Amino acid sequence: MISIPPFLRHLAVRLLEPALRNVLYIQRRLTAFAILAIVAFPLYWCVWKFIFPQRYESLTLRLIGTALFVPMLFSRHWPGWLKSRLPYYWYFSLLYSLPFFFTYMLLKNQGADVWIGSALVAVFVMILLLDWVTLIGQFVLGSGLAVLAYMLTSDVPLAAFERWDYLAIALFAVAAGAVANYDSERIRIEQERAMLATAGSIAHELRTPLLSIRAGAAGLAHYLPALIEAHELAQRNDLPVSPIRATHVDSLKGVLARIDSEARHSNAIIDMLLVNARVTGAVEQTVQQCSMATCIDVAMQRYPFSEEERAVVFREGSGDFSFRGSELLMVHVLFNLIKNALRHITKAGKGEVSIRLAPSPSGHRLMVRDTGGGIPPDMLPHIFQRFYTSTGRDDSVLGAGIGLAFCRDVMTSFGGTIECTSVHGDFTEFVLSFPQT
Q1: Are 268 and 303 in the same domain?
Q2: If you ran DSSP here, which 8-state letter would residue 144 be given?
């Protein structure tokens, strides 16, 4: 097996990160763009063939463009191993349908004004859809392949092409678009850094008093039982001490355990939010073989359940499977799913949470299901979108808008997928699919 040097792997991650992130933001428009491409390719064949006849047209090339976008209409139903390849399929389809197709048609039509305008429109669409690195790469690669295809399929030499003024305009448009998109990318990165720095500062300010609370509770735990016993002894012997009701005394006996439990719960939530904020959007990790059963056991042991919560969360069945990924990130994925499930149950005032494994030769699945209040149908399509929240309607469903986006990014980095089905008022189930190792 060929070993890729670490610096090249890191460079590839840095270059691909904006492209992969860009697909996440465009997924809401993916179906609409696919429909537009499917309709426009054959429609404009009719326009340029019969209404405004051009020097050259190719129904075959247009049908290829249409065929490339048809699968995107059903991308939600792709199998898990294939869905993780959607970003690459999207960029390949754009490479063909924008820079390659329009440059090739421009050359075959000998720089006709109609195709000069069409090719420039294609460049502007690329600027709107692509980050600056992918924009430059697609323009150079797509146009280069179009020139090569023209030279292989045309009897007219490239030297006869006279409309090089198009190239000057297109290069300026690409350069200006790259600069604009680069600035947008830098602003986004600085915003995320500022968010992370703010989250780190808040976490530090919260951890310090929580540590003091836990230390104080631990110290009181050594002396409070003796003080309670001395007070009860003084009352039995009619000594002049202030009376304390028996219910309050019983409450005092468990208060320190509750204080420690709440402090641990708060620390765990802080850890979870920080991991989500650091990793969401670009998961770079050391991949290794992991046991899913071990991840579940660790999550169940470390999650700060209250007594009531622990009673309604259970693992259904047994079994195990291996996956290539990170145990730490997988545990935090489970934390997020458990947290969301418990919110649904609390909001609905009913339900329980089950965690189940389904190993199979074709791929493995992990199911986390709760029978709480479910997710409203209008919110369900948006739950994995970063920073999408349900504030003002049902805060228990989506939280801060980064937890489920974090889960999706982690599963994508593992080569898997995460999907959700829900019936409002009945149940919610997350299905995490892993490729066969």
Answers
A1: no
A2: H
pLDDT in tens, the chain (437 residues): 445 565 555 555 555 666 666 666 666 678 889 999 999 999 999 999 999 999 999 999 999 999 999 999 888 778 766 776 788 899 999 999 999 999 999 999 999 999 999 999 999 999 988 888 889 999 999 999 999 999 999 988 887 788 888 889 999 999 998 888 777 666 666 666 676 667 667 776 777 787 788 788 888 887 888 888 888 888 888 888 888 777 777 777 677 777 877 777 677 667 666 665 555 444 455 678 999 999 999 889 888 888 889 899 999 988 899 998 888 889 889 998 999 999 899 989 999 999 999 887 778 999 999 999 898 888 887 788 766 655 443 443 444 457 888 888 888 878 888 999 999 889 999 999 998 76
CA of residue 83 relative to chain centroid, distance: 13
342 HSE (CA, 13 A, CB side) = 18
Distance of CA 356 to the CA centre of its chain: 22
Residues 242 and 314 occupy one common structural domain? no
3-class DSSP state for residue 376?
coil
The CATH number assigned to the domain holding 340 equals 3.30.565.10
Classify residue 51 by its DSSP letter.
Answer: I
> What distance in Å separates the CA atoms of residue 216 and residue 196, rounded to the nearest whole number?
30
Provide the residue range defining the domain that includes 408. Answer: 288-434
Q: Which two tokens stand for residue 70?
A: 């048809």
Number of domains in the chain: 3
| Residue from 404, 342, 346 nearest 370 by CA | 342
Residue listed under structure tokens 């929240």: 389
Q: Are residues 292 and 270 in the same domain?
A: no
Whether residue 113 sits in one domain with residue 33:
yes
- 64 and 144 belong to one structural domain: yes
Q: What angle do CA 146, 151, 153 make, to 5 degrees?
A: 90
